[in-house]
Amino acid sequence: SYGLEHLYCFSVPVLVFLNTLYFILFMARALAFYVFTETIIGLRTRHYSRHLINILAYPVFILCEIIAIMNFFVKTVFSISDDGLYSHGIFYNEIYLCAFFYVFISLIRIFIYRKKLNGYGILSAVSFNIVLILGYVLRILFPNYIIMNFFSLIAIIIICLTFENPVIYMARRGKAFNKIGLIEVLKENQGKKIPFVLGIVINNYSELREIHSASQMDTGILHVCSFFEKNFKGFMHFYLGDGCFVLVSKKKVQADEI
Fold first, then answer.
1. Labelling 251: which of 12, 36, 137, 189 has CA 20 to 30 A away?
2. Distances (CA, A) of 92 to 30, 79, 83
3. How far apart are CA 80 and CA 55, in angstroms?
């Protein structure tokens, strides 16, 4: 868009290159949002890779990328005349159909596997996909304005605040991950063997909390988490509440060594 507005600053081959690159990355972005949706639902495993939607998703991406790359040789998506006149190619609308395809299959997967997310996660996942739909529609209606990046940014902000926000995965007491963090680790390693998982529980935690006061027990939890942090640097440590701790390591460790 910038190049077309400043036609005399760029040659036609450069404009063709820049716009073709835009459509190549446009499709890569659509696939990236779909892959992220798969990830948060926990479908990035070999078990789910044979599903029909997955079988269709990547060939569609490859086909769209081929259409975009072919624009260097044949005007498949757009053409630019020597006078700087921009016109749509025969496969211009197919690029947007592919983008809508990824959003819709993302929403379908969210609906089918909604039990893998909590209510807040479902709302967030649906929200950023709807934002993308709105961005695509406005991009089609107002092709002369670069507004898709704005909606993509909103979608990324929603993702960062809901799924990538470290506060969500940190325990309120102690420098450790919480139960949500542990569940996410287990989801990421679904179908794989985790070499070492050790649970540690403080006996009679509720009674000790009543005897020694909540503030003293919270201080004790902080000390325990600090101890884990200093002495078990190769481990992920979690505090699940009620005096329950979990140590996770991707390396094989003998429990007796702990």
1. 36
2. 16, 10, 21
3. 35
Residue 46: phi, psi to the nearest 5?
-60, -30
What would the two tokens of residue 228 be? 């884990």
The whole-model pTM stands at 0.75
Kindly give the residue spans of alpha helices, DSSP state H, lying in the chain.
2-5, 12-41, 52-69, 92-112, 119-141, 148-162, 179-188, 205-212, 214-231
Residue appearing with tokens 């063997």: 193
Tens digits of per-residue pLDDT, 42-82? Answer: 766 555 555 666 677 888 899 999 999 999 888 888 888 77
Crossing angle of helices 12-41/148-162, nearest 10°? 30
Tokens of 125: 């996942």
Structural tokens at position 52: 């029909």
